[in-house]
């Protein structure tokens, strides 16, 4: 049977309110009394109900972390850093995973029932209506990987267009002119921005995209689209992918077809996940700075919890070209 605060109160010979104060930071209670109550609670195996604490207006120490497909390398890497960063603030992450067809709004609505202190959304987008509802109940939201044009939430995002412009300049400087694109999931923020950045970068060089294919950010889709591109009548001399996983698939496709990389074909990804540096790939890519992204997201969240009246902020972090032997 679950041990309650009433059980602790009876065993410790104090009131139930005293038990509550013993587990509330800053509450009015002597050190000796707090130590006594907590010792009795530990002996009984009692743990305070964070949800009930939230109903009284106190902080629960829970931060909702909304993520997408954690099986994908970048998302898993980001989640690992997010979880560690939330713990360093003294809070606990409440993981909420959403699928491709799930509404982030509905997932976040459910998180509000757990009386979370805030939310970090690293999948999909949040409607202005829900952002305003979160603000009205004192739950700040920080978006990772996208920027809201209506400025209804704080956000942090890699400068996707700048990263793509550097990739184009790098490839053109190496004599590449027939540059093809394999995009990720069509309507995602990162795909739209990276594709736009590629087009702008090519236009600045007097070039157009040589060919366009659509993947879904997975290695398998990169392999499939890479095989299609590399068996077509007109071959590209460079393939730029919307993320590293697809670029790794293209490397596998080139290896199957015995196309020399980078002598005959340059292959470039985006994100610089740990696997990009593995020997089978040694992928040239644009680094999407995960640790800096997480640090900025937590700084925005903590700042918003402390002062909900400040203007919303959007942080853009510079991408960095990382040159390896695939291009």
UniProtKB/TrEMBL annotation:
Key word Transcription regulation present: yes
Molecular function terms from GO: DNA-binding transcription factor activity; transcription cis-regulatory region binding
CDD domains cross-referenced by the UniProt entry: HTH_LacI, PBP1_LacI-like
Domain of life (superkingdom): Bacteria
Keywords annotated in UniProt: DNA-binding, Repressor, Transcription, Transcription regulation
Span of domain HTH lacI-type: 3-57
Pfam families reported in the protein's UniProt record: LacI (PF00356), Peripla_BP_3 (PF13377)
Keyword Repressor in record: yes
SMART domains attached to this UniProt entry: HTH_LACI
PANTHER family from the UniProt entry: HTH-TYPE TRANSCRIPTIONAL REPRESSOR PURR-RELATED, LACI-RELATED TRANSCRIPTIONAL REPRESSOR
Name of protein: Transcriptional regulator
Organism: Pelagibacterium lentulum
Highest classification ranks of the organism: Bacteria, Pseudomonadati, Pseudomonadota, Alphaproteobacteria, Hyphomicrobiales
């Amino acid at each position: 049977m679950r041990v309650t605060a009433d059980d602790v109160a009876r065993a410790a010979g104090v009131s139930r309110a005293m038990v509550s104060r013993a587990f509330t930071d800053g509450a009015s209670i002597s050190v000796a009394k707090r130590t006594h109550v907590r010792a009795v609670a530990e002996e009984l195996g009692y743990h305070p109900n964070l949800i009930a604490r939230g109903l009284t207006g106190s902080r629960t120490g829970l931060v909702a972390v909304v993520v997408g497909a954690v099986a994908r390398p970048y998302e898993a890497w980001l989640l690992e850093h997010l979880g560690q960063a939330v713990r360093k603030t003294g809070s606990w992450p409440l993981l909420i995973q959403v699928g491709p067809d799930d509404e982030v709004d509905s997932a976040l609505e459910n998180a509000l029932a757990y009386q979370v202190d805030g939310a970090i959304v690293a999948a999909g987008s949040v409607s202005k209506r829900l952002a305003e509802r979160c603000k009205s109940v004192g739950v700040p939201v920080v978006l990772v990987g996208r920027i809201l044009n209506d400025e209804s939430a704080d956000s942090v995002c890699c400068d996707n267009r700048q990263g793509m412009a550097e990739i184009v300049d790098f490839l053109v400087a190496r004599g590449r002119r027939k540059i093809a694109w394999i995009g990720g999931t069509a309507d995602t923020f990162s795909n739209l921005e990276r594709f736009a950045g590629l087009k702008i970068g090519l236009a600045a060089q007097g070039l157009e995209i040589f060919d366009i294919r659509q993947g879904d950010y997975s290695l398998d889709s990169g392999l499939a689209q890479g095989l299609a591109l590399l068996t077509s009548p007109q071959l590209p001399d460079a393939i730029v992918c919307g993320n590293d996983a697809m670029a790794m698939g293209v490397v596998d496709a080139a290896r199957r077809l015995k196309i020399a990389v980078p002598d005959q074909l340059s292959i470039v990804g985006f994100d610089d996940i740990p696997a990009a540096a593995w020997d089978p790939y040694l992928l040239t890519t644009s680094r999407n700075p995960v640790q800096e992204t997480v640090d900025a997201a937590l700084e925005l969240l903590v700042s918003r919890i402390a002062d909900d009246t400040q203007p919303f902020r959007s942080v853009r972090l510079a991408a960095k070209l990382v040159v390896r032997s695939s291009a």
